[in-house]
Amino acid sequence: MHRYIPTGPEEKEALLQELGLSSTEDLFQSIPAALRKPTAAHFTPAMSEIELRRYFQHSDVLLAEHSFAGGLGHSHYIPSIIDPLISRGEFLTAYTPYQPEVSQGTLQAMFEYQSMMAHLMGVEVSNASLYDGSTAVIEAISMALRISGKSHVQVSGLLHPEYIETIQTYAAPGVFSFDLIAGENGRLGAFKVGPETGAVVVQSPNYFGLLEDIKKIKEMLPAPVLLIAVVTEALSLAYLKSPGSLGADIVCGEAQSFGIPLMAGGPWLGFLGSAMAHVRNMPGRLVGQAYDREGRRGFVVTLATREQHIRRARATSNICTNQGLMALRASIYLSVMGKRGLYRAAQRSHRFATLGRKLIAQHSEIRPAHEGPMFNEFVIDLPIRAELVIERCLESQRILPGTALDEKRLLVAFSELLSPKVVEKWALLLAAACK
């Protein structure tokens, strides 16, 4: 890491004399005057990184800088420190750390990731990550069926469509069967579990952005049926009661929100956690603490041998690796943000979504599709085709106003990167595009 030591007045004067200049301003004469600010920048005390970026980009009210697309993959604040840290040589060749003598740094980073994620999920133990949210759901289902000894799963119809497609793909060979539970008014509808049902899968916030009553659903399930809670917006874990504390037996989902940038189709970060009683049925890698003969603390891959994941008869998963680099990004993000910072980011996301729903409700031509508690997403009913609304918003302001759910509905999302002015302009633009 480089050290930046400012120069004193005498050193500045000496440098200017060496260069043959009379003032610091003379250093910038080669830059056209039109590109220079007439006065020096003035900052208020202790501006946040987001505020500093907005100050220099003048993007506080520029809609083109933002996207309101709902569903998977949201734009969130990524601390600048993450990229230089993960680019250090110690992490560039992060091979499977089965040799703890030379992998303590990587192993400790995984252990810290597990500890923080377990706390957020409200469970006793977390694995060291999985590929993405959809495969995490599949691994959670396989884990639940091993524990319960059953072969059927009830899946909420308000689970993300891509996750449902993944379940269909894995169920096609007949390894397990599943039924979709219909929704009612944007939430999970009534359902019954049969004698072969081993697990119920529920997403909260669900695909429409509404919160499900995890505690009530768990109380409805007889033993040995397990409840799998899916979270596609991990930032909600910092603001809402954890699924584990509400009774979920297995918690899984997508952690892209934790310091991972949006690119073309990824990368993603799947997470999974449960009670310690189920740890031997947990898929993926698990890192634990150990002590050497001299009592010094160390970290090791535990409860699994090197080739455990490719021995079909004994394997708990067909996933033989994890998202180590993405888990490292999440570890740094969570460490830098801290409990308070994470909560404030989640609170801002929720506050802007609440403001957006309130503003939309003031327009007669558009309205929120559902009522009830939500986190940072909701559905909007439109008077005209959703694709036409998106096209008009892109043409006028180069903004994606939401994701088209069907012919006349948009799924919209909000993040902590926004401001009240941006949300207000989004609502006005959306209303204008519907006329």
Task: Report on this structure.
The protein has 435 residues and is an alpha/beta fold. Helices cover 33% and strands 15% of the residues. It has 2 domains: 50-78 and 338-433, Aspartate Aminotransferase, domain 1 (Alpha-Beta Complex), CATH 3.90.1150.10; 82-333, Aspartate Aminotransferase, domain 2 (3-Layer(aba) Sandwich), CATH 3.40.640.10. β6 (197-203), α8 (214-220) and β7 (226-231) form a beta-alpha-beta unit. The longest helix is centred in the last third of the chain and has 37 residues, at 324-360. 41% of the residues are buried. The mean pLDDT is 89.
Can you give keywords for this protein?
15 strands, 11 helices, alpha/beta, flat, 15% strand, Aspartate Aminotransferase, domain 2, 4-stranded antiparallel sheet, 2 domains, 435 residues, 7-stranded mixed sheet, single chain, Aspartate Aminotransferase, domain 1
What's the total count of β strands? 15
- What is the CATH superfamily classification of the largest domain? Type I PLP-dependent aspartate aminotransferase-like (Major domain)
What is the CA-atom radius of gyration, in angstroms?
A: 25 Å
Beta-strand proportion: 5-15%
- The helix fraction, in percent, is 25-40%
CATH fold group of the largest domain? Aspartate Aminotransferase, domain 2
Ranges where pLDDT stays below 50 over 5 or more residues in a row are: none
Q: By helix and strand content, what is the structural category?
A: alpha/beta
Number of helices: 11
- Sequence of secondary-structure elements: HHHHHEHEHEEEEHEEEEEHEEHEEH
CATH level-two architecture of the largest domain = 3-Layer(aba) Sandwich
Across the major sheet, the strand order is 1-9-8-7-6-2-3
Using the alpha-carbon principal axes, give the shape.
flat
